[in-house]
UniProtKB/TrEMBL annotation:
Pfam (any one): Glyoxalase_6
Name of the protein described by the UniProt record: Glyoxalase/bleomycin resistance/extradiol dioxygenase family protein
Superkingdom per UniProt: Bacteria
PROSITE patterns: VOC (PS51819)
Length: 263
């Protein structure tokens, strides 16, 4: 198991979190799919648990208030040394800050924001809780990717706010840019044009590593989820896009090798 580093370089995806209506049933789904166990987390935003794999924190799941009807989706959190300054940069660059910045107990300080295209992401200034503490094994987040209409305009936003360098994949029919920190790819922007789902709009996609994409996809269905894109081969590995019982979409991947996703 690869231990995550202590401090996260600003801009690094450091945590993923999901807010749902049925906290208990969602724990059962992800616990069965990824072998996660759960411990209570800070409850400033309502009931909240952290998913653990072999004792290491990998993701968070919270519960929506009964009267709130928000889209159910995984949220990618990007590391910051100063959540307030990052939130101000988001606003000044054409984005929106919907929640915070606010303290999550002793764990850290957070904000929920969206880029100029409307894709939602989190900002996390870690204190006691730095983020995902396990990587490189099945059941852990392995990659985060913004799915948007086209990358050129939104790339400028993320470059300015988080200081990324970008590297485009040169292809006439593939609009893809990696976001890099100190020369290392940490996330990506994927422009899909008219293939962007109308019911979702631009969104950040979380990739979870699995040992066998086909078996994990079948397990999703057994547990009450559904398959949006069946298993397929890609340059990064074998992928499948699925949704949990409440509709939160994520990607399963068995990485093709140690160089997949910049590892």
């Amino acid at each position: 198991m690869t231990e995550a580093p202590a401090r996260r370089t600003p801009g690094t995806p450091c945590w993923v979190s999901l807010i749902v209506h049925g906290l208990t049933t969602t724990q059962e789904f992800y616990g069965s799919l990824f072998d996660w166990e759960f411990l209570p987390g800070p409850d400033q935003l309502g009931p909240y648990v952290r998913g653990l794999l072999h004792g290491a924190e990998v993701a968070g799941i919270g519960q929506l208030p009964p009267d709130r009807h928000l889209p159910i989706a995984w949220t990618t959190y990007l590391a910051s040394d100063d959540a307030d300054a990052t939130a101000e940069a988001v606003r000044s660059c054409g984005g929106t800050v919907a929640v915070g910045p606010l303290d999550a107990g002793d764990a850290g300080r957070l904000a929920i924001a969206s880029d100029p295209g409307g894709a939602v992401f989190g900002i996390w200034q870690g204190s006691d809780h730095l983020g995902t503490m396990s990587a490189g094994v099945p059941g852990t987040p392995v990659w985060n990717e913004l799915v948007t209409r086209e990358t050129s305009m939104v790339a400028k936003f993320y470059q300015t706010v988080f200081g990324y360098e970008t590297e485009a994949v040169l292809s006439a029919d593939f609009d893809y840019q990696t976001l890099q920190l100190a020369g290392i790819p940490v996330a990506a922007l994927h422009g899909v044009g008219h293939a962007l789902p109308r019911d979702r709009g631009p969104h950040w996609m979380t990739y979870f590593e699995v040992a066998d994409t086909d078996l994990a996809t079948a397990r999703v269905v057994e547990l009450g989820g559904r398959v949006l894109q069946p298993p397929r081969e890609a340059s990064s590995g074998r992928l499948a896009t699925v949704a949990d019982p409440e509709g939160a979409v994520f990607t399963l991947v068995r990485p093709s090798g140690s160089d997949a996703f910049g590892r």
